Amino acid sequence: MEEEISLRELIEILIKRRILIVSITVVSILLGGIVSFLVLEPVYETRMVLMASQFTDKIQATERQGEGIDNILNSLSNYPTMTLETYRQQITAPRVMRETISQLGLEDEYDVESLAKDITLETIKDTNLISIKMQHINSEKAAEIVNAVGENFVDFVAVKAKENATTSSAYIENQIEIEKAKLDEALEELKEFLSQPRGVSELSKEIEARLRQITDYKTNLTDLEIRQEALEAAILVAESEAKDTNRILLRDQDDYKSMQLTIEDSATLLKIEQAEVESNIKSIKDKLLTLQQEIEKTQVELQDKTHQERQINQKVSIAQNTYDAFIKKYEELRVTESSQIGEATITVMSRAYPTTRPVAPRKALNVAIAAVLGLMVGVFTAFFIEYWQSSEKNKINTVASN
Predict the structure, then answer these.
(1) What is the mean pLDDT of residues 180-207?
(2) pLDDT digit string, tens, across residues 104-151
(3) Burial of 384 (0-12, 13-18, 19+ CB in 10 A)
(4) How far apart are CA 186 and CA 312, in angstroms?
(5) d(CA 76, CA 174)
(6) I want to staple 24 with a disulfide (CB 3.0 to 4.6 A). Which of 224, 233, 367, 378 is the partner?
(7) Taking residues 7-17, what's their average pLDDT?
(8) What pLDDT is stored for residue 84 in this prediction?
(9) Which helix H or strand E contains 316, and what residues bound it?
(10) Cα–Cα distance list, 363 to 42, 46, 191, 218, 227 (Å)
(11) How far is CA 19 from CA 85, 375, 381, in A?
(12) How many Cβ atoms sit within 10 Å of the Cβ of residue 265?
């Protein structure tokens, strides 16, 4: 019952103070309307859209196709991976903001931080588009600022890419001179080595000649050994024959005329020939031994020379490949340095244009909010006045009763 009475009292208070409540609400609506329509200036929003391409990723993919020294050089000249978020953060970089302020003469109105704060950046989902927005009371000025920011950002990306290419190019250009000196040194070492006597080719031919000599000596040695065996058999036969029939028949190979040669002892003649054959065999064996020793020494020398030549040629090959790789990378960087990377990576899809429809203030919304606030203030004021008057009455009654 108390709640019903209290609720009735509340309703009675609202009815009693309805003029006050309505008056405050009307005043609030009027103030909201005056501020929204007469005091607050209209705010316009302009937007510029940029598209980020994957140009640097294509460059890196091309560079990663190299091997060996190419991979090392590519790592020195790699462009940083540029994501949409990276681009978005760079748009409001101090360098871009300063350039925009200086270009448009905004020193009195903006500094770097305030201009960056007024620029709104958005990345459109599932696309590689970046939106640059700005709200300003001057629609044309807002469009001018947004366009300047976008253009300066494109230039900023191009300058950064060229700076990176220039730095890498300067390093590689300096390194080319070093590699050229190393290549010249290696070529001079090879030239000096090839000019020395008893080179690899000469030693190889010397070994081949001595091997042919060994083959000839071995052939002669085989013939002499066969002749030696024949003489031994002939001596045995001659000694067994009667000593008074010592005749040898010789046949001339040209005209096949026969003649006889009488000697005192055929066995003695055969032994003399045998001694000569044995002497030749011993001489040939000594020469074979000498040749074998010389060939062994020459082979050792040839192996040393071959190893030295292989090392020098390898050194020359490495120096040449390194020098060629630096030259190739230097030419690539020169092309990159002269190309318009900024325009290739960032494309202006749509420029900002002045608009005639303001985005703020939202007048209807402001008036509605003012009405709600006025009503709330009116209700609160009504209850407060009623409470204050009731408290005064109770206090007077209490004093009077005492």
Answers:
(1) 89
(2) 999 888 999 999 999 998 887 878 888 999 998 899 999 999 999 999
(3) exposed
(4) 7
(5) 14
(6) 378
(7) 81
(8) 77
(9) helix 266-338
(10) 10, 20, 91, 121, 134
(11) 57, 12, 12
(12) 12
The fraction of the chain above a pLDDT of 70, given in percent, is: 81
Length of the chain measured in residues: 402
Beta carbons within 8 Å of 63's beta carbon, 6+ residues apart: 70, 74, 77, 78
Q: Tell me what pLDDT residue 317 has.
A: 92
**How many Cβ atoms sit within 10 Å of the Cβ of residue 307?**
11
**What long-range pairs does 135-142 form, CB within 8 A, spacing at least 24?**
135/43, 135/44, 135/45, 135/359, 135/360, 136/43, 136/44, 136/46, 137/41, 137/42, 137/43, 137/44, 138/44, 139/44, 139/46, 139/354, 139/355, 139/356, 140/354, 142/44, 142/45, 142/46, 142/352, 142/354
**The pLDDT of residue 290:** 92
Across-strand partners of 178?
A: none
| Concatenated DSSP letters of 249-266 | EEE-TTT--EEEEE-S-H
Q: What single letter denotes the amino acid at residue 364?
A: A
Q: Is the pLDDT of residue 77 over 50?
A: yes
Give the integer Cα–Cα distance in Å for 155 and 143: 18
- Cis before 197? omega within 30: no
Give tens-digit pLDDT for 349-388.
889 999 888 887 788 888 899 899 999 998 999 888 888 8
Nearest in space to 249 (alpha carbons), one of 234, 241, 259 = 259
257: buried, middle or exposed (CB in 10 Å: 19+, 13-18, 0-12)? exposed
